[in-house]
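User: quick one, fold this
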Amino acid sequence: MKTVLGLCFSLLFLSLLKAEDKSPPKPDRSRVLLDMNEGIIREPHIMFTYVDEKKRRRLTLDLYRPAKTETPSPAIIMYFGGGWQNGRPGIFASLAQGMAQRGYVCVVPEYRLSGEKPFPAAVHDCKAAIRWTRRNAKRFNINPNRIASMGGSAGGHLAGFMATTNGVKRFEGQGSNRDFSSNVQAAIVMCGPMTLLLPHIIERVEKAAGKPEGDAIIDFMGGALPAQKTGIYIEASPLTHVSAQTPPMLFIDGEFDRPRTRYTEFWTKMDNYNIPHEFVLMPKAPHPFWNMREWFIPTLDGVDNFLKKHLQKK
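Assistant:
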């Protein structure tokens, strides 16, 4: 009898193991290593602009480019995320390496965070990085007519802002190279808010208003709340500035990060101007996803495919 029971338990245990084996594998959330050096050249800490009249505060960028190219390459200006209050260019190093291996010159600039100066300082700095890129196109073998902006989270907001404010002079700031254009010919937004007046954002900000820790958006808005100073939230929203000058845009979201909700109204406005836009959903992806192994190559593929289609040779 004991032998029969033991055999039954053994069979039950084996059947459970087989059932576990059939369960889908968990996504690989490990970070991508910064070891994609083959065929690219990295040039870090290049000064691209001063942000004060006395020229004491300067910003730098990291540049990644193909080691060998027969013709001038398209460029991607990449803006890191961190709630406009944290972050550094190194956050996007793996993406920059990966896209440089695919033939793009990738420029990853600093920008002033909200603790130093709120909106629109970051916008001014992001546009200065584009102007610097265009001025130095010949030096780094860049096609100045094929420049895209790209970013994730807060950086996605800035990438979208660059795209929607093509030709809007009031956002240029007082940075360097103001005789060069800051226009972009395409943009990639990864889970970045295109309006700062989404219902869940307003709710979040209002709840945080009375708390000591505050909120990243409140800091970015210089302490303003939506109900008190709605105007600055409107001005800081890429949605406000969509026009016929806005270029084609790609949007990428993780499945577990409010997919599509940031862009519904934005896409409608783009459609009114017949501006091409595409969307890529990363299955089972969190916020953020682009530096995790599971979604790293799909991100590179999505961006590359989009730019090959819309960032045409000119």
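User: anything notable?
Assistant: Residues 141 and 193 are 33 Å apart (CA to CA).
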